[in-house]
TrEMBL record:
Residues 1-11 have a biased composition (Basic and acidic residues). The chain crosses the membrane at residues 59-79, 85-112, 434-453. It comes from the Bacteria. This is DUF445 domain-containing protein. Residues 19-42 have a biased composition (Low complexity). It comes from Streptomyces siamensis.
Length: 459
């Protein structure tokens, strides 16, 4: 209990420590002034049993003191009555035993209260120095337990990476972690308000779209598609659908052509012109559908190639695409679509988290098992995990060391001094009574030895 000895003696290893200790005590005293102790106010059944043990040991030590006092009185009486030289030896041993017993009684009692109720200086150490003891204990813990070297050494000896890996490699443990993660995920999604998340998602997508020009990327993609011939299937589909539509809607085409003719032309001429236009249009679409090398297809390829180049290099084309992008993103329908995406994703995640056989949970479980197996067998991964844990623990203890030690200081300062003294005495008082007993015995032996040496030298 080095910190107790330093506190009692007033010694410190740091010249600035007394000032820090006094400041901490004043802070703790100010924080607790005007209010009673909030803790250490009751005795548990175990504490009561310890107090009974202390009382028994006090009675034993006091009884031993009375015994040596009686022996001293009898030995002095025997010596006065001429009993012989042995009485002097016994009296000397008993006298020294009384001195040792009284001195140790004073020392033990001075820890907890004023001996005989007398306000002797440097007595009642625990009740009067309680706050300073709390400060010293907090500094002791901070210096010896919350240092970076101690934390790293202890965590490195534990081998968290290896142990965690072996634990995760067990299927039942992986199942448990997966279930806990699913519960935490559902809880997090339940706490989040859809409106807030939708606003954040919408703003993020819009900001990202506004910050990045899309025309060059679209141009590169279109250029690659045309070069690979990926657009031809789309052209084939359009030609097939156009041909089928023309076959099914011939009357509508004829009506449209005839309706656009001038009013002064004869009706039979309009009909012949409409039939001719329809047949030519149907022929053109059919040939384009059936002939991969049709000139119109080549013209379309050249148009798409030129358009892809303009998207990447032409300033006006890129500006038009950007304006179109802004108009599209600004439409309410698009914003509603972005907002509704979160609702769909959230529902999907919740359903997957609740279903034990969902792909999400199965993949998480498999990943945990794989991670556990690798952590249990691969030293590199173990070292990484150990390093992460050490860095996190060191950050906590170095950043919040003052808060941690102040918890000890403030807690001790909030205790009631008298009750704290009785409780501490209940825990260590029984062992302290052995000091009184040992003092009696050792004092008697020392007194006897001194008397023997004195008689021998005197002879």
């Amino acid at each position: 209990m080095e910190w107790m000895e330093r506190t009692k003696s007033g010694e410190t290893s740091d010249p600035e420590q007394p000032a820090r200790s006094a400041a901490a005590v004043n802070t703790a005293t100010t924080a607790t002034a005007g209010r009673p102790g909030r803790a250490m106010t009751t005795f548990s059944p175990a504490d009561e049993e310890r107090r009974r043990g202390v009382r028994r040991m006090k009675a034993t030590a006091t009884g031993l003191l009375l015994l040596v006092a009686l022996v001293y009185v009898l030995a002095k009486w025997a010596s006065h009555e001429g009993a012989g030289a042995w009485a002097g030896y016994v009296a000397a041993a008993a006298e020294a035993g009384m001195v040792g017993a009284l001195a140790d009684w004073f020392a033990v009692t001075a820890l907890f209260r004023h001996p005989l109720g007398l306000p002797i200086p440097h007595t009642a150490i625990i009740p009067t120095k309680k706050d300073q003891l709390g400060v010293s204990l907090g500094e002791f813990v901070g210096e010896n337990f919350l240092s970076e070297e101690v934390v790293r050494q202890r965590l490195r000896a534990v081998g968290i990476g290896s142990r965690l890996g072996s634990w995760l490699a067990e299927p039942e443990h992986a199942d448990r972690v997966t279930a806990e993660l699913a519960t935490a995920l559902r809880g997090a999604l339940a706490v989040l308000r859809d409106s807030d998340v939708q606003a954040v998602v919408g703003e993020a997508i819009t900001r990202r779209a506004d910050a990045q020009e899309i025309a060059p990327g679209i141009g590169k993609l279109l250029e690659r598609i045309v070069a690979d011939g990926g657009h031809r299937r789309v052209v084939d589909l359009i030609c097939v659908r156009a041909h089928d539509w023309l076959v099914l809607h011939d009357e509508q085409v004829l009506d449209a052509v005839q309706g656009g003719a001038p009013g002064w032309t004869p009706r039979f001429v309009d009909k012949r012109v409409g039939e001719r236009v329809y047949k030519e249009l149907l022929r053109f679409v059919t040939e384009m559908r059936d002939a991969p090398s049709h000139p119109a297809r080549g013209a379309l390829d050249r148009f798409l190639t030129d358009f892809a180049s303009d998207l990447q290099s032409d300033t006006d084309t890129r500006a038009r695409v950007e304006r179109l992008k802004g108009e599209v993103l600004g439409r309410g329908e698009v914003q509603d679509l972005i907002a509704s995406a979160w609702t769909a994703v959230r529902s999907m995640i919740v359903s997957a988290a609740e279903d034990e056989r969902s792909e999400l949970r199965l993949r998480v479980r498999a990943s945990l098992l794989s991670l556990g197996a690798r952590m249990a067998t691969e030293p590199k991964i173990q070292a990484k995990v150990d390093s992460w844990v050490e860095d996190a623990a060191v950050y906590v203890v170095t950043t919040y060391r003052t808060e941690i030690t102040s918890l000890i200081t403030d807690t001790v300062a909030s205790w009631d001094a008298e009750h704290t003294t009785r409780k501490i005495e209940a825990h260590i008082g029984r062992d302290l009574q052995f000091i009184r007993i040992n003092g009696t015995v050792v004092g008697s032996l020392a007194g006897l030895l001194i008397y023997v040496v004195s008689r021998a030298l005197g002879a």
